[in-house]
Inverse folding.
């Protein structure tokens, strides 16, 4: 059996602040799950993050207050935490008196990043590189993703929404992978989906999966994926957090041509005839990105 961990990056709304919506699924054999979790835990422990959820987008931001603290990089980690918290408290008190809108957003930013403030930006970047390097070394893992360019997406020419198209494509590729595994092992292999517990998409993806079990997808019969997705809180499993890393890395490559994390993650894309077909960039016509070129 393969466990496929699913997460997204970017917003599906065409009016959102990202040009792409990415849905990624990272599949690993069930007998390698503990090994993979241990790999991630060891890296987390190195950076004192073993009990912390890794949210890539928040972790990789630059925290302005760190640059305002003299010799921040040379301070011990407990002193860094103290200095950052002191600065943030003062800043929130100032904003509370002057600008309520910025105050609310700043308070949210601080809350989302408070578990990472003991690390410099370089350390946080290195942490994510080490995670991506580890994922790249998992030769048993398979990565699937649908990457939708919202600027070029025409809702009038599709019967599915952006999220529905992305989910159907990831499911179809996972099904094909399971069929290939079954063929290679001479026994039917099954898979199950484990999704970040997002209330907005939980019911929608559950209903879609029920439909796929009854009528299959447009592209493929669904014979090897069992049940509807299991929804778990991402802070409870490192593997959902790794799916977040994969989705984020792909989006940042497509939107900003950032290759450092993407080049490592892309090594795990599912392959056919030595082509990395597990990830699709839609619409790919005339696109020169690595993803589209790998399909030719």
């Amino acid at each position: 059996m393969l466990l496929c961990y699913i997460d997204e990056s970017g917003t599906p709304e065409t009016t959102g602040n990202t040009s792409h919506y990415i849905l990624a699924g990272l599949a690993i054999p069930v007998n390698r799950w503990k090994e993979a979790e241990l790999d991630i835990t060891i890296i987390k422990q190195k950076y004192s993050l073993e009990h912390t959820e890794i949210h890539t987008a928040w972790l990789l931001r630059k925290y302005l207050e760190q640059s305002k603290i003299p010799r921040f990089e040379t301070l011990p980690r407990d002193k860094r935490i103290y200095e950052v918290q002191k600065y943030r408290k003062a800043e929130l008190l100032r904003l509370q008196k002057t600008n309520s809108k910025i105050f609310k957003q700043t308070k949210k930013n601080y809350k989302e990043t408070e578990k990472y403030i003991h690390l410099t930006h370089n350390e946080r970047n290195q942490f994510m590189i080490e995670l991506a390097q580890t994922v790249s070394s998992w030769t048993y893992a398979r990565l699937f993703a649908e990457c939708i360019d919202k600027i070029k997406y025409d809702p009038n020419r599709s019967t599915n929404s952006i999220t529905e198209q992305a989910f159907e494509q990831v499911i179809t590729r996972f099904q094909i992978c399971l069929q290939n595994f079954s063929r290679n092992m001479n026994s039917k292999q099954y898979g199950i989906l484990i999704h970040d517990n997002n209330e907005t998409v939980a019911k929608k993806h559950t209903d879609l999966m029920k439909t796929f079990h009854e009528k299959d997808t447009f592209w493929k019969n669904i014979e090897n994926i069992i049940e509807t997705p299991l929804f778990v809180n991402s802070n409870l499993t490192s593997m959902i957090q790794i799916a977040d890393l994969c989705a984020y890395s792909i989006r940042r490559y497509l939107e900003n041509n950032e290759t450092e994390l993407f080049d490592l993650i892309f090594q795990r894309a599912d392959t056919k005839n030595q082509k990395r077909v597990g990830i699709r960039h839609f619409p790919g016509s005339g696109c020169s990105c690595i993803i589209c070129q790998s399909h030719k």
